[in-house]
Amino acid sequence: MIEVRHLTKRYGDTLAVDDLNFTIEKGRIYGFLGPNGAGKSTTMNIITGYLASTDGSVTINGHDILEDAEAAKKNIGYLPELPPLYFDMTVKEYLAFAAELKKIPKAERKNQITRVCATTKLDAVQNRLIKNLSKGYRQRVGLAQALLGSPEILILDEPTVGLDPKQILEIRDLIKELGKEHTVILSSHILSEISAVCDYVLILSHGKLVASDTLENLTSLMQGQNSLIVTVKSSKEQLKEILRGITAVKEFHFMGDCEEEHCVKAEIKTDPSSDIRELLFYQLAEKNLPILAMQLVRLSLEDIFLELTADDQAAKKVITGTPSSPTENADDTDTDTTESDTKKGDNENAVHM
Ligand SMILES: Nc1ncnc2c1ncn2[C@@H]1O[C@H](COP(=O)(O)OP(=O)(O)OP(=O)(O)O)[C@@H](O)[C@H]1O
């Protein structure tokens, strides 16, 4: 439906969008997630034909957004971050004006305006000046404008920014409703927003795509990134020997100083499906090495989002498609640990946290 290939945008020296590739399929609500400045608005402006790319292509239902702009744009309804509303017009006047700009045939305009006002629940304020509407209602006017012409795809840039909590819930409900009839792409820098509304997530960081998957898969992938933090009364060598013998241990590293004497603290990463707590307990007990503390840490969607978008390293960790995709980072980025180790004979490609 939408094919984005090698999309790149430079503003002078700033690389705002860096070789993006993704496909948007019909009938889903896509979340475009990333911190401020990640390149979300730039990408949306290019997809909707408001901005030219430096390189790469965007096709919408087979129509190139630059070469076949009119046919491509017919498929898209766009709500920009700052909708271009005319405050001195009434809602009805503004929608009539927008319908004309979209070249909707005159005979169809009235019906279309009635329909979009009903969908966005604007009936009661149709004759009010836009400047007298609340921000939530102005956002509905922007949405109504996007719905004119019955486009298959709706692209909404930060649709809830600046709204109060009640208005946010109302707009989210409206977007979910619209998702039943349209393919929706929604950008946000708020994770909870994406989790509440979308079923597929594209995470952008520094202009690059760092994750692309269903919300369900991303969540299970994240749950797979469990780690265990243990404090054991032993030497590093003794604990290393035991951890190297447990197949489910993918990697481990020693953490800072222990409060107790003669003990070590380590963070251990395991296979997604394995819980090694009991096994570790018995093996340590067999060697007379008491466990002083053990804590299972499950990463939340938020932790992963922060990890993926935190810094330039994020661009090297790409998660796409399946929950089993590797998330290894080949760089040694350990900063707050005193020593690190990986399984399988300190494989140079293996990673620690
Ligand atoms: N017209 C412009 N001229 C120069 N640099 C720009 C321009 N527009 C955006 N940028 C830069 O491009 C990068 C991406 O910006 P963009 O607005 O696309 O990000 P975003 O993810 O939408 O962020 P936000 O949520 O803050 O809108 C940023 O570094 C921004 O400063």
If you had to describe this structure to a student in words, what would you say it looks like?
The chain has 12 helices and 16 strands. α5 packs parallel to α6. The strands form 3 sheets. The protein has a 7-stranded mixed beta sheet, with helices on both faces. A 5-stranded antiparallel beta sheet has the order 14-11-13-12-16. It has 2 domains: 213 residues, 3-Layer(aba) Sandwich (Rossmann fold); 97 residues, MTH889-like domain (Alpha-Beta Plaits, 2-Layer Sandwich). The C terminus is likely disordered. By secondary structure, the protein is an alpha/beta fold. The protein is elongated, with a radius of gyration of 26 Å. β7, α6 and β8 form a beta-alpha-beta unit. The site of adenosine-5'-triphosphate (ATP) has 12 residues, from β2 and α1. It comes from Faecalicatena fissicatena. It holds the Pfam family ABC_tran. Belongs to the ABC transporter superfamily. Keywords: ATP-binding, Nucleotide-binding, Transport. GO terms for molecular function: ATP binding.
Task: List its salient traits.
353 residues; alpha/beta; Rossmann fold; Alpha-Beta Plaits; 2 domains; seven-stranded mixed beta sheet; five-stranded antiparallel beta sheet; 12 helices; 27% strand; disordered C terminus; binds adenosine-5'-triphosphate
